[in-house]
Amino acid sequence: MAHIKYGKEGLELDITPVSRWYDDGSEEPCVEYEIGLYYKDTPLFSDEFAEKFVALKDAQAPYLSAFILNVLASGQPDNWIMLEPKVSVFMAPKNALGCACRGEMPGQTPFFMEIKLDQNILADKPYTEYSDTGLALKLEASREQWGQFARDLETEETDFED
């Protein structure tokens, strides 16, 4: 399980790849991720409808770990990936990179990730009419922490028996 602590308050984001498969004729895999948010090991999402939310990477999208590592390497402010059913992930540096005046040490540049659930999470059927839930998780951590998170996630994404 890849997890990252958010701040010093005991909040933790958990993203776990739970399955991987190949669609007919595709060379790149599809991956099913579970996304959870916890406070001191207690789920913040009600298990009345789901303790974790499911997000699917299709054959056209990169692994989530590759997306994170690319954002960290490029340092560009406009990076997002869409996972199904309607989970968008946006990641960017908190401030413009390269400003030595802030006194940040290399590797400590803060990056934020925003995970927005555009799906209607309370619907009886998963693919009902589009509905923006307005639920967005915004997490901030250093470049170094995100890098470790991505490497942990990458290990799990590729650790499936084909």
How would you spell out the order of helices and strands?
EEEEEHEEEEH
Helix fraction, binned, reads: 10-25%
Mind summarizing the main beta sheet?
5 strands, antiparallel
N→C terminal distance? 20 Å
Tell me the radius of gyration: 16 Å
Low-confidence stretches: 96-101
Report the β-strand fraction as a percent range.
Answer: 35-45%
Key structural traits:
162 residues, alpha+beta, 5-stranded antiparallel sheet, 4-stranded antiparallel sheet, 2 helices, globular
Give a brief rundown of this model.
The protein is α+β, with helices and mostly antiparallel strands.
Would you give an account of this structure?
There is one protein chain. Helices cover 16% and strands 37% of the residues. α1 (64-74) packs antiparallel against α2. It contains 2 helices and 9 strands. The strands form 2 sheets. Strands 1, 2, 3, 4 and 5 form a 5-stranded antiparallel beta sheet that branches. A hairpin with a 2-residue loop joins β3 and β4. The protein starts with a strand and ends in a 5-residue tail after the last helix.
Topology (elements, then pairings):
Layout: E1 2-6, E2 11-21, E3 30-39, E4 42-43, E5 53-57, H1 64-74, E6 80-83, E7 87-93, E8 110-117, E9 135-142, H2 143-157
Antiparallel strand pairs: 1-2, 2-3, 3-4, 3-5, 6-7, 7-8, 8-9
